[in-house]
């Protein structure tokens, strides 16, 4: 089984507009709402591939019914604790003419230590039975920056720990010695506090982290520039597929889901990276966060160039 943890889930409200005119009234086009949150986006794809997946999360009492409906519609298993308040809504503004997305993410619910203990009790019953534990996204208010490290320390001996986060949440999480992280290039640069200008520099940086935190893989996503998979001994460059982009939100989550799917099916690393890129391409070329069809993913994966470096 695979467990995802999304401590700060969200409803994503996506607004399509040609381009924002500052200081003027902007008339928006289509608006849609989807269940988001990084771990949940990963879990949706994995369960669509029929991998047994449990999504652990924290929901606000005032709109949890609405969110549970989304889990039902997306056919995803969920285990959650309720806390006072309203699960956040994140605004995604897609500027068609500029090929650009602006994310306006709320800080989220406030979680006290009593409710967090309840969450951990639920997690204790599930995490040790998992092959992978994927912790993705920001933390809600009230939880310390080293929350992912603590969770990694709690289960890391039995379970492969995966972290996708940024800033302090990533830097602290690394101290839990995860199995894999999936930073985008900016998150990796922030973690190391320096600019990374070439593949060679990125690989060196990833290996520095792998060595320091006894990790196995760093999967670096670079938007339109593709991806790099780095381990202590190997490195692969993953290309992209030319698709018409609707919105790039969730591209990284799809990449992580595809890569973990490949690993869990014991595919060679180059195939895992191709599957990952295919999941991203399919996700960015449609509205919202659909479940993906595995046959489509394999078809697309054949179009991805993966080079061993
Ligand atoms: N503009 C693009 N053109 C082609 N492929 C893209 C583009 N943006 C993203 N991708 C694909 O998606 C993958 C992940 O994208 P990206 O690096 O933007 O992830 P991310 O920053 O973690 O995204 P998010 O946080 O929104 O999930 C890329 O490696 C690439 O394969
Ligand atoms: O605020 P966080 O937790 O860092 O990111 C949350 C989020 O932007 O990530 C997903 C896309 O990756 C969206 O579904 C969601 O709104």
Question: How would you portray this structure in words?
Answer:
It is a single chain. Helix content is 36%, strand content 24%. The mean pLDDT is 95. It has one domain (2-20, 30-308): UDP-N-acetylmuramoyl-L-alanine:D-glutamate ligase (3-Layer(aba) Sandwich), CATH 3.40.1190.20. The longest helix has 16 residues, at 269-284. It is built from 10 helices and 14 strands. The strands form 2 sheets. Strands 5-4-1-8-9-10-11-12-13-14 form a 10-stranded mixed sheet, sandwiched between helices. Helix 1 crosses helix 8 (251-264), helix 8 runs antiparallel to helix 9 (269-284) and helix 9 packs across helix 10. A hairpin with a 4-residue loop joins strand 6 and strand 7. With 309 residues, it is of the alpha/beta class. 1-O-phosphono-beta-D-fructofuranose (F1X) binds next to strand 2, helix 1 and helix 8.
